[in-house]
Design brief:
Blueprint lengths: L1 H7 L6 H20 L5 H16 L1
């Protein structure tokens, strides 16, 4: 939210906000893949919500 607010006022946001966004996204993606079924299709399906969130 702080990145969005900063963007509305013409700034790019702070380093802490961007760092936490990147680290949190990677942790979520990694955790989803780690608990997925061992097959490729299961891992792709488990990774999809994190990938969609990062893309949005």
């Amino acid at each position: 939210m702080s990145i969005l607010l900063a963007n509305r006022f013409g700034s790019c946001g702070g380093a802490l906000a961007w760092t936490l966004l990147v680290v949190g996204s990677q942790a979520s993606l990694g955790a989803n893949i780690a608990v997925a079924e061992p097959g490729l299709i299961g891992r792709i399906i488990a990774a999809w919500p994190s990938v969609a969130l990062i893309g949005s």
